[in-house]
Amino acid sequence: MASAILHLSSSSIFSPSFRTYRPSLSQNAYLSKPLRIKASTSLDYGKTSVADQSPTSMKTNNWQWKFKDTTINIYYEEHEKESSVPPKNILMIPTISDVSTVDEWRSVAKDIIQRVGKVNWRTTIVDWPGLGYSDRPKLDYNADVMENFLVDLMNSPNSPLSSLDNDLVVFGGGHAATLTVRAAKKGLVKPTAIAAVAPTWAGPLPIVFGRDSNMESRYGLLRGTLRAPAVGWMMYNVLVSNENAIQSQYKSHVYENSENVTPDIIESRYALTKRQGARYVPAAFLTGLLDPVQSREEFVGLFAGLERRIPVLVMSTSGAPKRSKAEMEALKEAKGVSKFVEVPGALLPQEEYPIIVAEELYRFLHETFELKN
User: Fold this and answer.
1) Average model confidence (pLDDT) for the chain?
2) Is CATH 3.40.50.1820 the classification given to domain 35-369?
3) Fewest CB atoms within 10 Å of the CB: 68, 196, 295, 372?
4) In degrees, to the nearest 5, what angle opens at C-alpha 102 toward C-alphas 230 and 359?
5) In Å, how far from its chain's centre is CA 53?
């Protein structure tokens, strides 16, 4: 998801007279070839499950993640239903952007836990450090820091996932999906399945302007400016932290249908950009420091590294921006991708079309963990 609205040209980046520009962004029964499915907007829930009327609950809490000499409060939610059947757990990780939040997964989480099947699903949604409702300290954020967070979250004995069994499924959006796949390829985490929803790998500026040495130096200058004590807030307020900019993002490339962008959504996302330290992660994301890889070849290679190891669903979207769509489509025939589907939406389908996304995700879970038995 784009995290800012800028005009940056290769010849005059950071010119005092810049204009605005909107960069576009970016199964356990193993299949011999990836399935390719185009999801319908008129899905039949009865084919995979029916809704359970058992009482459900949502619990919120904070986990203290220790990174070097800094302790960071990490916000998370747990969604489950009353059941005598031991639960199987899903970790849901939000898409990385300046308005990243657990809110984007909440409707999907509530939908899935109410399904009736052989498995009693339980979900945990976690905000990234520096984003959402988590603390936002002034760290030198990069892809390695975020990967380290994921590894600690999934492996540390004191994490909110420590009391769960080892059969953890991970759903991630955008960069979150690719960071999860990267950590899994390295063997640092061992989920039993991964769903990559509208996966991306390039930040807003690199995907538009590239990564030559001249551009990298300009990204560094912009990043340093955004992190500066006084001028940083001024620039962040102009470029990101205002309701017009956020609304423009959502209508141009975050949502597929601009009519789905409500005042309530804009107001709640605007409030997130006003939290203390809000500009630090966006400064890194915008300029490519959170990119898990540097090329499409590396991106495809990450998924290939999971072939025959972990079932992987890739969920593309019909209305994604052209450049991001091309990266998603590159995974259609990729090794390591067990199943490929397309759903409506742009860069945040789990928030814009939660019912459709939940149906496809549950179908993947059903095929992976129920049909095989």
Assistant:
1) 87
2) yes
3) 68
4) 145
5) 29
**This prediction's pTM:** 0.87
> Could you tell me the two tokens for 370?
């129920």
Nearest-angstrom CA–CA distance, 94 and 103? 8
Confirm if 353 and 12 have CB atoms less than 8 A apart. no
- Distance, in Å, from the CA atom of 213 to the CA atom of 219, rounded to the nearest integer, reads 10
The residue type found at 135 is: D
Measuring CA to CA, which residue among 76, 137, 134, 147 is closest to residue 290?
147
pLDDT tens digits along 7-28: 333 333 343 333 333 333 333 3
Name 198's Cβ contacts closer than 8 Å, sequence gap at least 6.
95, 173, 174, 177, 315, 316, 317, 320, 324, 328, 345, 346, 347, 348, 349
Q: For tokens 């538009």, what's the residue?
A: 208
Token pair in block for residue 347? 């860069």
Q: Residue 216 is encoded by which pair of tokens?
A: 């990298």
Query: For residue 175, how many other CB atoms are within 10 A of its CB?
Result: 29
Tell me if 21 sits within 8 A of 8, measured CB to CB. Answer: yes
